[in-house]
Structure formats: structure tokens, C-alpha cells
Amino acid sequence: MNSFRLSFLYLRRHLFATSITVFALALAIAAVTILLKLEILSHSRFNTLAEQSDVIVGAKSGGIDILLGALNFEGDIPAYVPQNLYETLKAKKDISFEDQTTYRESFVITQIAPMLIFGKYNGFTLIGTEASFLNLQPSASAPQISEGAFPSGVKETIVGSAVAAKENLKLGDSLYVHARIHDSSQESSAFAVKVVGILKPTGKIWDQGIYTNLETAQQAVMATPGYQTIWGPHILSYFLINIKEGGEASLATLINQRTVSQLVFVDKEKKHLEELTGSSKELQFLVVGALLVLSTLTVLAVFFTRIEARSLELAVLRALGWARRDLTGLLLIEGFWMGLASIVLAAVIDVVMSPVILATAGSQLPAATASTWPPWMILVTGLLALIAIAIASLPPLWRLYRQDVHSALRNIS
After folding, report:
1. What tens digit of pLDDT does each residue of 249-282 get?
2. Which residue positions in the chain have pLDDT lower than 70?
């Protein structure tokens, strides 16, 4: 009888103990896999986070929420800010208030672009904006036109490269989309937007956008059931601003203290986000390490217990001509069987639990994709588990090599 057959029969004969061990290992592997996936997912936002803005103005909701909503399209439809503030800043007019306070030449805006997020289409984001959106800090990662032109007419759109590739779009095609509004699950009736332009690939979140002009977006919002604000159709979700150095504090005072909006500094909020994800990373790796150690100790305890109970069996096999290396292979194969079964069970647990955990996290994490939530992660953690099993096998094997066959066989009655 070969080692594979003998090891399988032994594990089946002790099915309850084997099942408990496999289940414990599977839980550890699945937990490690999910933690690593969450780590990859939480850091993936830095890969796609856009870079074309010094400051962002949005509804008061927290700096990181505004940063991720505007520059990574995360979260639900954001609250609105009045368009007239954007128009005033764009026109570089003096801003006066009832108490006679006037903001004049205290800051210099070099570039400004609006964004009105008004829905989703197959995971992509619908955004109303203006042509100034294409002029924010020209760089390799800035949105630039590859084909066609920026939409000038109502119900026209220019799409990001990822949208064009996934939906197989070309100039002249139409998309049928639904508008959504802040704090509501209702949608407008479907309406068609015609593709008049396609953006070049940027490697950033801009590739995931479907862009119309502001008129199209605002009309769609107005037609959505439940929409009602004091500003009528004249609303925005965000506007992105580049400003000359030295005027930041004055502009922040104006926006944050004198309006219903909130201004956030992009670099500052990125640093805060890095600090948060860095702390999370350390904690997750600590938990991953603890789970791997726990897996190793579990297998070590099982192997030690089994070798104590099987000392007579192993001695008989030695007497029948099995060499130490044959018995070593037998024990390692048993560990391999348990590890393989644990990986399969862990994969099932991972498939069941991953959507639940993502749903629990909600908007705190970006949407998972094939690259940020890779299915092969279970194989990586499974390999780590097999290495842990191999390490845990070493002390029992050392015990086996020191076994005195004659003393063990002397106990046979």
C-alpha cells in the first residue's frame, strides 16, 4: 500500500478529528485571504485617485469624503452646492456679504471646473461638467480628448477610455441612462445620450466617467422624482480649483465660514487618508500574522497528538520495512491532504463571506474589481498555510526519527 492511500485511509478513519482540524485551518485561511483583499482594496484608491486639483469645494460632509467622491468617484450621489458660488469664483468677481465684508484680490484662482454627479451606468459614473474640466493641470494623467469633441449639445456625452472599451462604444453610439439624486433610491426615466467624444486613457478615475455638459445633467436631475432644492436646477456636486500659492487661507475662510459649502485641500486630505490606511495596514498584518501562527500551532498540536497515539503503528511500519524517509513522506502527505481540503473549504467560505463583508463596509471602500479583489488570493494564502503545515511537521518528525522501534514493539501484548 502506497503512502497516499495509507494516509487517506488514516484520515478517513479519524474523520471527526480531521474535520475539526480542516475546518479550523479553513477559517484561518479564509480570514487571512479576506484581510489581504481588504488591504489591497483600501490601497487601490491611491492608484486611481485623480491629481488635477489643489482644492475641492463640496457640500459639508468631511474632507476625506469630498476627496474620494470628487477624485475617485466613491460613495453615493453627493449632496449639492449652489452653482452661483462657482459662477462668481469663475468670473473672478468681488464677493460681498450683508455685514459689508468683501473678498477682493485676496486669492487668485487659475483654473476652476464644475462637477455634477447625477447617476451610475453599469458601474460607471455620470457627470455633468464644462470644457474647463479638460484644462486642469495638464499632465499625462489629465483627461484629454482622443476622438471627437467635448459635448456641446443637450444629451451628448464624452466617455472615458474604460467605458468605451467595456461597452464597445464608438462615436455616434447611444447610451440609455437613468439619473439619480442625492439621498434617494429613485431614478428618472431612461434617456439616451449620444457619444460625441472619447477620452484618452489616463490610468486614473477619469477613465471610469461618462461626461455630459451641465445642462444635460441638471435637466436630468430636475426630471428625477423627489428632487427639490431652493436652488432649482442650478446645482453642482463639486467644483475643482487650482489656486495661486498664498491665497489658500483666504479662500478657505470664505467658503467654510461664509457659505453652505466646504473647501478641502487635496494634499492635506490625501495625507490624512494615507495615515488612516497605514494604521489599518499595520493592524491587518498583525492579525494576519497571528492567524498564520495560530494555524501553525493548530497543526503542530494535531501532529504531536497523532504521533503520540501512532507510535506503535509507526513502529510496526518500521518493522515491516518502511524507512524513516517513507514515514516522513506519510506524515507530510497527511498534512498535504488536510491542507488541500482546507484550501477548498476556505475558498467556499471566501466566496460566501466576501460580498457580506463588502456590503458591511459600504462606501468606506471603493468598488471591488477583478484587479483589486483577485480570486487567486486564496491560492496565495493557501500556499502560506501549506508552508505553515510543513513547518509544523518538523518537531513531530524529529520525534519520529528519535523513536526506538524495539521499545515501542515491546508494549505489544
Report:
1. 888 888 888 788 999 999 999 888 877 766 555 6
2. 1-3, 6, 10, 93-106, 277-285, 288, 292, 295, 299-300, 302-324, 327, 359-375, 393, 395-413
The C-alpha angle 277, 280, 281, rounded to 5 degrees, equals 85
**What letters, b where the CB count within 10 A reaches 16 and e where it falls short, cover 97-109?**
eeeeeebeeebeb
Nearest to 158 by CA among 189, 183, 187, 134: 134
Give the integer Cα–Cα distance in Å for 392 and 386.
10
Are the CB atoms for 203 and 46 separated by under 8 Å? no
Which string of DSSP letters, residue by residue, matches 149-184?
----STTEEEE-HHHHHHHT--TT-EEEE--B-TT-
Closest Cα partner for 73 from 87, 56, 89?
56
The set of cell numbers assigned to 204 is 486614473
Pick the closest to residue 28 from 382, 332, 391, 282 (CA basis). 382
Q: What is the pTM of this model?
A: 0.70
d(CA 179, CA 319): 79
Q: Are 162 and 211 in contact (CB under 8 A)?
A: no
What is the separation, in whole angstroms, between the first and last Cα of the chain? 25
Widest distance between CA atoms in the chain: 106
* 206-231 pLDDT tens trace: 999 999 999 999 999 999 999 988 99
- Residue 76's φ and ψ, nearest 5 degrees, are -80, 180
* Residue with the three cell numbers 428625477: 224
